[in-house]
Every structure is written in structure tokens, then in C-alpha cells.
Amino acid sequence: MPQHEHHDPENGFADELGPVLRAAGESFAVDGRPELVSGGLARGRRRLFRRRLAVTGGALALAAIGVGGVYAGSVVTPPDASDKASAAAAPQDGGKPDVSRTPAPAPTAGTLKPGEAEIPLSRIADIVKANTPAGKWSFDGLDGTGQALSGIYDDGRGEAAFGISLSRAGRDAEAGADQVTCPDPVYVPHDACTTERLSDGSRLMVFQGYEYPDKREATKNWRAVLLTQDGLLVDASEYNAPAEKGAEISREDPPFNANQLRGIVLARAWRPLLAQIPPLPTAPAAPGGPGKPLRTPPPQITGNGVAATLRAVLPKGLRVVGKGGGGEFAYVVVDDGKGKSLVQVNVQYGMDDVADQLYGSGDVTTLPDGRLVKLSRQPGEKGGAGVVWWSADTMTPDGFRVVVSAFNTGAQQDAATRAEPALTMKQLKAVALDPRWTKIPAK
Amino acid sequence: MRTSRADEFLEFASARTGQLFRSACLLTSGDVHLAEDLTQETLGKMYALWGRTSRIGNPAAYAQTVLVRTFLSHQRRRSATERPLGELPDHTPDDGSDPLLRIALLDALAALPPKDRAVVVLRYWEDRSVEETADALHTSSAAVRTRTSRALGKLRQRLGGSVAEFAGR
Fold first, then answer.
1. pLDDT value at position A214?
2. Residue B68 sits in a domain of what CATH number?
3. Based on the domain organization, do A126 and A262 belong to the same domain?
4. Which of B21, B120, B163 sits opposite A30 (nearest CB)?
5. In terms of residue numbers, what domain contains B12?
6. How many domains does chain B have?
7. Searching chain B, which residue's CA lies closest to the CA of residue A8?
8. Is A109 within a domain?
9. For labelling alongside B83, which of A125, A155, A348, B44 has CA 20 to 30 A away?
């Protein structure tokens, strides 16, 4: 607690350090660095694009980001968030008061967002303890409230990070469906993943994989996610390391096996806590609210139309040895006899607002009908040795985008299996411009 | 009239980039090239989250958290070798601050382990509480206190009197 630091012998120095640190920080000027914003935007575009490409594998990653946001303070309320150490006054931008950089205020009943609740974290901890084998626990922020709790568990065989969150996936269970769907092993390799539907309509996924899908670190992430019929999620995660992201592994496997993890999220004791999470408002916020013009959502493609069309428009002579996807995304793994090649497609509406970022550079041509076509050859980005990524990215003037990519491997994180993808650049372009993409139902 | 995702994001980025970049410069103890890279990466991550930011209570504070995590993950990917002190600020403000002390501070920050440096930046530049710092770093409050105490001890050893002199004037 900050108040304890009044007894800290370093405190006097800390008071003096603030102004020096601020003076040093303020000496770095951003004038003449416009590329910071433009470069950030470009990276964001690529990141979003990759996420959309990997949508089948993305469910887990997206969920993890959501939990990250929770841990970052939107839902967890430290007991003394407002009672902050005041050793350093807030630095200001250009002398103007900069309220936006003040750390998040503690949510109170008045500032909680729809779908959020203030659950005493000690209650969450008690339920975790009651549903796990005896061991030594240390939880973070036990005297606070919120919907997510993290801690470290040690059964004597090595400390392991553990996290649990209670949240609302959306207005109904369908909103959380991708959180209880096993990721496609082509995109998120894992050792085991099972799903089941319970008698009360709840759905459950137990996942045993890795913190990083490319296994660049040996940290395992085992996880159980329960989705109730009301769209509420109980999400338990454990690691074989005392912290996420980069801590050395402390043990061979996370401490709780699949069945124990399943038992944690299925505990009846969660039900009263879940009941405290309020529903979301049934109607979206009023259009044109203060300073936030309403953005009309573009049509979304659901179902298997993209997958079916991809198989229909592929050049003849390619044997399909794997397939997957859903919604706006689909992939096939083809083999022309010379090795596996992953071919994936995204079909998206309403992308015209980012046309400049997508087609502002590189080998871009404009067809007579106004369609933009960008062809690119680049190295793979998911760690497979020698992987090349060819793509034909097309967009109509009204923002209908079809991007087809092909790789010289069956999975991006695996090493190249051939020199080039199974489709030529010319074939990729023809596939992307095929009129059949526009016939896929969207709503 | 629809506002594009890019427009909304640009508004946020324009307002926040200065502070992110300056934080990054302190985290990298003056390596402005790495700081630029970290700032862009952070903005990129924020862009990808954009639209889901209603789930993030305070995007500005969250961006700073993302920056620190991005920095630490970058440090872990590097070899454990000592990072050379990067270039010094190419802009000397006429604000009466002491350029030698600034250099000494960046030097002293560079000598701290990255996670200790992150704790110092979050607590004394970002003005976060122990608990908020612990949240941002996915660690315990106790660990933050330990790191804070250790880092302040080292900084005081290196900077000592000159800091008091600066603060006192």
C-alpha cells in the first residue's frame, strides 16, 4: 500500500527523482516524428489483417486480450486506486492539463460499464481454493473487487500462474461461442482440446496448448472455459511458469489436469457470482451520442459460403488435403504432388476506410472498373523456416475486399515444404477477382 | 456520416503519441530508435484493439501499459548482453534543466534491469500506484515494492546529491 511507504527510507529520494525523471522525459521531442503515428497506424492495419486472416485460430488470442484488458484495470478495482503515491506530479503535454493520462479511476457503482460487476476478489479466491487440491496460493489484490483474479499456486512441485475471470460474452450465448470452440490446429497447435455441451445448455472447452502458438517458449497454457446459456463466461487459465509472458518454466506441466480444470469452472459456487453480472442493454447506445458519431456496421459474412466458394474457384489439379474457416475467412491446404501449400482467403465488406493503408504502397494497379489490386510477396510471419507468403489483395471502390494468400507450407508456423506456393501469382489474382465472391450471402 | 475507425484512432494517437514516445525513451534509457519502434508497435496494438476499447476503461492508460509490456517482451527476446547506451536526446530544451544530470539519469536507468526500469518509469513518471504497477507488469505488489526499493537504491547510489540539488532549486 502506498501509505506504508512513508516509512520507506527511499521515500525522500523518490520525491526528488520525480522532477529529474520528468525533465529527462520531456527532453525527448516528438516534433518532426510524424512517422510515429503513421507507422503505428500501418502496423495496426497489418496486425488487424493478420488477426482476421487467422480468425479460426484467433478466438483464443482474442479472449486473452480481453482478459488482459480486464487485468489492466477496467474491471479490477484496487482497494486504494485513488490513494496513489504522490511522489511525482503528473507530467503535462505542452503545459496543458492532460487529464487523459491520469491512470484509470476506480470504477464505482456509478461508473461501471454495462455488463460489469464488483465482486469481492476474496470470494473468487475462496471458490478457487475450494475447488482445487491443497497447495499454497498467493493471490493479487485480494482486498479489491472485480471480475478477474490472478495468483500463483504451488503444490510443492513448482509455482504456477493461475488466472480466472467471470465475464459477459455478449447479449447471448452465441456471442461467446468462439471462446468455447477449439482452435484449428493449423493456426494454434495444441496437445489436446475437447468441447462438450452440458445438460443445462452450457458449453465447455478444455484446451491444452501453449502460451505462444509457435511454441517459441516452452510455456504451456491450459485452459477451461465455460459458456452458460445466458452468455456468461467462466475462464480459468494456468501455466507451468510463475508468470505469463516470458517467465522461466517452473515445472513440466501446469498443476491442474484437464479434469481438475473442468471442475474449477463447473463449480456451482460461481452461479451466484455470475448472477451479479448485469445484462447488457438490449438496444445499442443512442446514435450520435456525445462526440461519437455512429458507425454503421458493414455487412458480415456468416456461415460456410467463403469456404465453399474457395473450393469452387481454386484452379483444377489441386488436391485439397485440409480445410477450415468460417464466416469471412476460409482456408484449404492443397497438394499438387509437390508438397503442401496453405491457401487462405478473407472476404470483407466495408473496408474502404482503410484503403489508403492497404493499397497506399507496393505493387498496386487499378482495374478499369475501379478495383484496386495489390500483389505482394513477403516472408512468412509465424516462424516457419523459409516460408514465403504470396497474396493478391483486391478491393472494389465501395470497400468490398477479397484477399487471397498462399504459402509454401501447409501451416505458417511449419518450415517450408516447397520452393513456392502451389498457386502462381497470376492464379492468386484470378481467384481473388472471381465474381463468385460477391454472391456469398451476407447480413 | 460515418467516422472511420482510422479517423477515431488517429485522434487518439495524435493526442497520446508524445507521451508514449517520451515514456519509451525513458524505458530504453535514451535509445530513441528503439523508442520509436516501441511507440509504433504500441499504437499498432491499440489500433487492432480499437472498437473493443469500450472494454478498456482508460485507453490512454492502457496504451502506456501496452508500451511497458511491449518493451519487456522486446527485452526478453534480446540476448542478455548489456545494451549500449543509445543516442542522447537531439533536442535540448531551454527549461533550465541540467543536461549533465539528464545524461547521468539515463545512464543510471540503463544500468537497471529492464523490469526494474519499467517499475521506476511506471511509478515515478507515470505516477502509478504499486497495485497499478503490479497489474501492468503481471506481477505481485510485493514484487513491485522490492523492485522499487532496489532500483531507487541503485539510482541514489549513482545520482545521489545531484538529484537533491536539482529538486531543491
1. 64
2. 1.10.10.10
3. yes
4. B21
5. 5-168
6. 1
7. B149
8. no
9. B44
**A373-411 confidence digits (pLDDT tens):** 999 998 887 777 889 999 999 999 888 889 999 999 998
Interface check for B107 against chain A (CB to CB < 8 A): the answer is: no
The alpha carbon torsion through A408, A411, A412, A415 (nearest 10 deg) reads -60
Does the CB of B32 have a partner CB in chain A at under 8 Å? yes
Q: Are residues A341 and A263 in the same domain?
A: no
B33 close contact with A: CB closer than 8 A: no
Cβ contacts of A45 within 8 Å, gap of 6 or more: A354, A357, A358, B47
Q: Count how many domains chain A has.
A: 2
How do strand A340-348 and strand A401-407 relate by DSSP bridges?
antiparallel
CB contact under 8 A, B22 and A30: yes
Residues 6+ apart with CB under 8 A from A436: A309, A312, A313
| Helix, strand, coil percentages in chain A from 3-state DSSP, rounded to 5 | 30, 25, 45
The range of the structural domain enclosing residue A167 comes to 119-274
Contact B46 A85 (CB under 8 A): no
Interchain contact B3–A (C-beta under 8 A)? yes
Of A161, A204, A166, nearest to A76 by C-alpha is A166
d(CA A278, CA A55): 29
C-alpha cell at A345: 482467403
ipTM over 0.85: no
For residue A49 the three cell numbers come to 489483417
CA R_g for chain B: 17
The answer to whether residues A269 and A327 belong to one domain is: no
Q: Is residue A60 part of a domain?
A: no
State pTM to two decimals. Answer: 0.44
- Pair A397, A269 in one domain: no
How far A321 CA lies from chain B's nearest CA (Å)? 32
- Same domain? For A433 and A393 the reply is yes
Pull the grid cell for residue A86.
504522490
For the domain that residue A347 is a member of, what is the CATH number? 2.60.120
Which residues 112-151 of B have a C-beta within 8 angstroms of A?
120-121, 123-132, 134-136, 138-141, 148-149
Q: Which amino acid is at A231?
A: G
